[in-house]
Amino acid sequence: EALPLYHPDIVLVGHVTDDSMRNMLAFRSFAKPWFRAADEGLVLHGVPVPTPAQFLAAHPRGSRLLDLVTMARERLLWRWGDRMGETDRLTDAILSAIFREARAAGARPGIVLLPVWGELGVADPAPLPGEQFVQALAAREGVPCLALRPLFVERARLGTDFERREHWRPLEHRLAAGGIADFLRRQGLVP
User: Which of 16, 35, 13, 32 is closest to 24 using CA atoms?
Assistant: First the structure.
């Protein structure tokens, strides 16, 4: 809804592989909005986001045995169930909707794969499974896609040490910004 207000020329989505799994969550550090894929498209849930007092009132304190059983069940479903298939379908639906909305607003969509944590320690620049998934989706949608990890791999070979446990430091941001600027110029999206 906000895109028409800003009249963007480009909508560039930054994607972290963990985003796909986060799409499945209704709660991460606190309650949050979330989508579910349905036959009619994406359905938004969890809005308005409750205040902490509202959330606590809806979840009265008591035995946490049910919480532990639910957590164990979810862990098993992730390990042996089809959660990854569901995750991929939801991520596909969300990214495709973003690309459609960008085009409807007259903007050109693009996507940047942002490597984080353990991905920064992989010395092989070949796409990882999560990167392959998003690259295939971008190709299908005709959306330019930049995988930044090969740039990070190249710099690591030259001796650069990247943050692998926490959020990026200024070093990682500068490298990503330079890679994104080059990508936008190569794609003809900026002069």
Answer: 35
Q: What is the pLDDT of residues 67-124, one digit of tens each?
A: 788 778 877 877 776 777 888 899 999 999 999 999 999 999 999 999 999 899 999 9
Range 87-93, long-range pairs (CB < 8 A, 24+ positions): 87/20, 87/21, 87/23, 87/24, 88/20, 88/133, 89/37, 90/20, 90/23, 90/24, 90/35, 90/36, 90/37, 91/19, 91/20, 91/23, 91/133, 91/134, 91/137, 92/137, 93/35, 93/37, 93/41, 93/42
Model's pTM, two decimal places?
0.86
Is residue 172 predicted with pLDDT exceeding 80?
A: yes
In the structure encoding, which two tokens stand for residue 67, read together?
Answer: 């919480």
